[in-house]
User: What shape does this take?
Amino acid sequence: MSRKKFRRSQRFEPTGDRSFQEYIINTPAPPTTRSELLRLIRGGEDTYLELKVKLSNSERVAQEIIAIANTAGGVMIFGVSDQLRIEGVNNPEGVQEELVKICREEIYPPLIPLLDCISFDNGRRIVVLDIDPKRRPYRTKDGRFYLRIGAEKRESTREELSDLLEETRPVAFEDIPVQTATEDDFDDGILWSFAEAFDDEFLQKNLYQTVEFLKRDLVLALGEGDEFRPTVAAVLLFGKSERVGEIVPRSGITATRYSGNSSNFQIVETHELNGNLLTLYESSMRFIKRFCDLEKFRPKRSVENSAAPVEPRKNYHIYAVREGIINALIHRDLALRDGETRINVFDDSIEIINPRRTNGFVPPSSRAIRFGITQAINPQIAAIFKRREYGTNVPRGGIPMILKQSRLFSGRRAEIYTSGDEFKLKIFGF
Assistant: This one.
C-alpha cells in the first residue's frame, strides 16, 4: 500500500451546533483494517510516516505535523514504539482531543485532522492521524516552517520556503514572518497616525508600543514573549522607506518614460522607486504627473493645440490612473522570484505591469476580473491600504471602474492581458 495514499475519509463538516472537537471525536470513521495498518508500521518511519509511543509534547508534535504536511502529507501513529512494537495508548479519546486542539490552535493555517482509533485483540488501541498537505505551507504559531527529510524533521531554509511558496497559491505570502526586521525598521509616524485616526486616546494608553501594537492589535507580527517577527505585510505597510527594499526584495517599482508609443523607442528617463506602500504610491503618482495631465473630466481640445508642432501632453482620467497604481501595489504576487512591478509612460498611454502567476489565473479569471470578480491576494495589505486613515484617498470601483472611466475619458477601452506570469494594464490618453 502506498504510504502517501494512506487516507481515511473522516473530514470535518460543520453540522448544526456541533463543535470542531465534538465532530472529530464523536463521528465514527470508516474502519481501517488492521492488516493494512500493520503493513504500514512494519516498513518503519520515512518521509510519510511518523511513529510515537505517546503524545507528551504538544509543541514538538505540532512541528512534526507541520513537517509532514509541508513535505507531501502522510501519517502519524500514536502507540507504536521505535522498535515497531504496538504498545497502545492509555487514553485514546484524550489523545484525539489533544490532536484536534494542536491542529486548530498550534498550526497556521489550521489543519483539519483525519483521525482513526484502531483496537487490537489484546485490548491495546492506537490513534492514527492522517495529515493532508492541501493547504500548505503550514507554520507554527511563532512563524516557523518545517520540512520532513526521511524520518527526520528540520526547519526549512529560505530557499526551500521560497520553492514551497512557488508551488502554492500566493494568498498567504503577506503573512510570512520576516526574520531580519526589528522594531527600529518601522516608521512610527505612519503607524501611529493610522492608530490615532481610529481612537485619539489610543496613543496615551499605549505609549507608542510599536511591537505590541503590531502583534496584538493589528495581528501583523508573531513571536512569544519578547520575540518579534513582523510579517511581510507589516514591513510593506509601515516599514521605514529606506529599509523596506533591503528587507523585502523586489518590493520596488521601475518607472520609465519612453519617447514613443512602445518600449521599442528610446528611454527618456527611468527611476527605481522604493519605500513602503504609501511612499511608492506617492512617488509613482509624481512620476506620472511629470509627463501626463490627470483630470476628473475630459478636457476640450482647441484648434490651436491641434496645429502645434509638438504634440501636447496626453490627459488621463485621474481616478483610473490612481486605481491602476493602487491595484498594482496591493495585489502584487510577492512570492514570485522573477519579475518586478513596472510603470511605462508612452506618448499615448500608461502601462502598468505587475507580477502575477498565470497558472490557474487565466483565461477564466482574467475575464471575470473585468466584472469585479477577483482572486484575493494580500487581503490584509489591501484592507489597511484602502483605509483613509492610512493616508491614501482610494477611489472605488476597481478594474471595472478603470475600464469604464478610461473609455469614457479617452474614447479607447483600456487593455488588460496576462502573459509570462505578468498582469498588464494599459490606459490610453486623450
